[in-house]
Design goal:
With about 375 residues, the chain is of the alpha+beta class. Helices cover about 25% and strands about 30% of the residues. Keywords: Membrane, Transmembrane, Transmembrane helix.
Length: about 375
Amino acid sequence: MRKDELTSEELFLKEGDNSAKLLLVDVHDSVMQAIGLGNGRLAVKSVPPLQEGDIPDIMHRMEPATEAKRYRKRTWSRPVRRWATVLILVVLVGGGYSMFMESPWQAAKFQYEVLPYEPLLATKEGGTIEVSKNPLVPTKGKIPQRVATKEEELLTEKNLEAYRVVEKLLLPGEGASYVLKKEDSGDERPQLGRVIPAMLFNDYSSYLAKAEEYKAPYLPRPEYLPEGYVFDQAWIQPDFEVNENELLALTDGIKLEGGYRVMWKKEAAASINYDYSSMRYKKGGSMVRINAKHIKSKTRTVESLLRTNTTNVENILVNGTQLIYTETTNNEIKLGYRYRLVWTDPEQNVVYDMTAAPESSSLTKEEVIRIAADMMK
């Protein structure tokens, strides 16, 4: 170390040593030996030759070469231990396994566990969601299409006319039921119908406000969406029970051409329920649709999920909730979607259903599970 690099106190001490012509001693080796490190664990730098006017250093910086080798060995062995952990986990859970994913375009991570399929509990009373025991199979040959008679075509046309007549008499948010009769028709059964348009929303905030107002099943907006997918539309579908006896007892009504008459009754607001919500995200021709509905049937199988012979069925555990995951790649039978994920909230009797369409959707398994995971937060 040069003189100009020393403090005044260090310079005083070293010049005193030189003036006394004391032998300079490197105590490094003895100190290392005393503290148990020894000479073999550290690589010592060579001591540079002294220049005129310089004062020699007593201690020199040591590089832990052996420790560096040990660290590299530990780093190399980590992937081996990770795979060993995965294999042990598969054995312990009886065929299930865990996945830890990181999105390349969003530095976000999530973990899920794949389990063997089993029905999901949907209600507190024991109702379940199950995959159909009987798969759909392609039919051999073409099924002949039944041709409607002229009378049936006329009845369909009049039923549509009756719907439109009643719809014009309602204010937004109102609902009505109606009965269509043909005068002097004898034993011909009258046609019953209801008018209850869906509530459509082009932005999420408007949907959320109405869902809270009418206590419709709540669909949270996922923070994660695959690249390019944007909110398209949401809707709430009102519904009510038609009282057939009350409708058949109605008289007068509105006369239609062809000897038909439609009688109708506006439903009370208290009798209308809002048990179904849905929203849709799109990217070009690809679509992700997410639904939520209150379950009316409380016991046994409350819903059966369609499948084909090639449908892959699993249970996925994510965010502490299990869901049924199905993936269908059979192009012979068109289900209208490739992925379907279903999970439940038994305390609220609500079923959530997410589908990704069409069958040729480029979405991956991890992406659709990630969307569902975000919905469960």
